[in-house]
């Protein structure tokens, strides 16, 4: 009498209905999971330094004004620093909110709407922030009036 | 009185693991919304120095100063607990010591926040 054979669970011959790897999502979730950890570790360094320079050293918050920003962004290093921080923090935060929406919004249409709003906000903020960092002018001429700040060339 | 049938509650396993996860989510959302506002306020440097200075001046009043304390508290917790999450995921002994690591996170957070609060409140209240 022949004994019926039962395949080992990990024999690789999985019925198509049970296959987990053929979804169109690919390994996006794994990449997102990894990104959260890598960007998170970098953001700790980027943001702690940002807080140290802007809130702790010198006059702290009371020393922050247009001149303070102009002084920082006169250096390419700080522009790269802030640009990296902007992109990493926005993507890290957006993915976090995406996960939270997926967890709590039960209706498909609600999830789609919330994520639509989220991605729109993210795109606007990232593009705006990037443009501001790249086009910043420490001595702007507004309505034909040149800035009179001490570090600006006299007109 | 009619009794409606409600789920037995939404507590998963409680204790350090679940509560740190809840705190991580809440602080994450708070930081994200601040970040949106922060990029907008910084963008005012592209409008005019006066516009930027006027809005930043509001960050210097005592009430906002306390708000900044709360924001930094959220950031520091999220950062330290995030490192703990990385250790739980990637360090072989991470899952075994996740509780001890959470209490280290809380202790370290308290020390950093006491130091930061003194410094920041001196700036805000002109010490």
- The helix/strand series of chain B, from N terminus to C terminus, equals HHHH
Task: Give the H and E element order of chain A.
Answer: HHHHEE
Overall CATH architecture of chain B: Up-down Bundle
Task: Report strand order across the widest sheet of chain A.
Answer: 1-2
Q: What is the beta-strand fraction of chain A? A: under 5%
Structural class of chain A: mainly alpha
Detailed description of the structure:
Chain A: This is Succinate dehydrogenase. The complex is a heterodimer of chains A (155) and B (127). Chain A is mostly helical. Chain A has a domain at 29-136: 3 helical TM bundles of succinate and fumarate reductases. Helix content of chain A is 61%, strand content 3%. In chain A, strands 1-2 form a two-stranded antiparallel sheet. In chain A, strand 1 (141-142) and strand 2 form a beta hairpin. In chain A, helix 1 packs across helix 3 (76-104) and helix 3 packs antiparallel against helix 4. Chain A is elongated and about 100 Å long. Chain A starts with 27 loop residues before the first helix and ends in a 9-residue tail after the last strand. The model of chain A has no long low-confidence stretch (mean pLDDT 88). Chain B is built from 4 helices and no strands. Chain B has helices spanning 15-43, 49-58, 62-90, 98-124. Chain B is extended, with a radius of gyration of 20 Å. The model of chain B has no long low-confidence stretch (mean pLDDT 91).
């Amino acid at each position: 009498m022949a004994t019926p054979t039962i395949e080992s669970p990990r024999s690789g011959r999985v019925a198509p209905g049970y296959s987990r790897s053929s979804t169109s999502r690919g390994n996006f979730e794994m990449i997102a999971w990894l990104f959260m950890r890598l960007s998170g570790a970098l953001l700790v360094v980027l943001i702690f330094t940002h807080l140290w320079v802007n809130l702790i050293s010198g006059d702290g918050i009371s020393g922050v004004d247009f001149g303070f920003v102009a002084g920082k962004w006169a250096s390419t290093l700080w522009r790269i620093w802030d640009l990296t921080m902007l992109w990493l923090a926005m993507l890290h935060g957006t993915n976090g909110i995406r996960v939270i929406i997926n967890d709590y919004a039960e209706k498909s249409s609600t999830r789609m709407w919330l994520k639509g709003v989220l991605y729109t906000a993210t795109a606007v903020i990232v593009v705006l922030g990037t443009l501001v960092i790249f086009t910043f002018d420490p001595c702007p001429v507004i309505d034909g009036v040149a800035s009179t700040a001490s570090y600006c060339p006299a007109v | 009185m009619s009794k409606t049938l409600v789920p037995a509650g939404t507590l998963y396993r409680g204790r350090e693991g679940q509560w740190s996860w809840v705190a991580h989510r809440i602080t994450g959302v708070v930081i994200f919304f601040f970040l949106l506002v922060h990029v907008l306020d910084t963008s005012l440097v592209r409008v005019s120095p006066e516009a930027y200075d006027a809005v930043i001046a509001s960050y210097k009043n005592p009430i906002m100063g306390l708000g900044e304390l709360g924001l930094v508290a959220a950031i520091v917790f999220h950062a330290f607990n995030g490192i703990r999450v990385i250790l739980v995921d990637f360090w072989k002994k991470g899952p075994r010591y996740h509780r001890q690591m959470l209490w280290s996170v809380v202790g370290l957070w308290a020390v950093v926040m006491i130091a930061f609060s003194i410094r920041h409140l001196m700036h805000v209240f002109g010490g």
